[in-house]
Amino acid sequence: MKHIDHQLQRLLKAASQASDSSASLPVSMERQVLAQWKRQRRGLGEMAIQRVLSWAMVCACLLLTMCFAWTQYVEARQTSEALTLVNSSIQLSFLP
Question: Which pLDDT belongs to residue 21?
Answer without folding.
Answer: 59
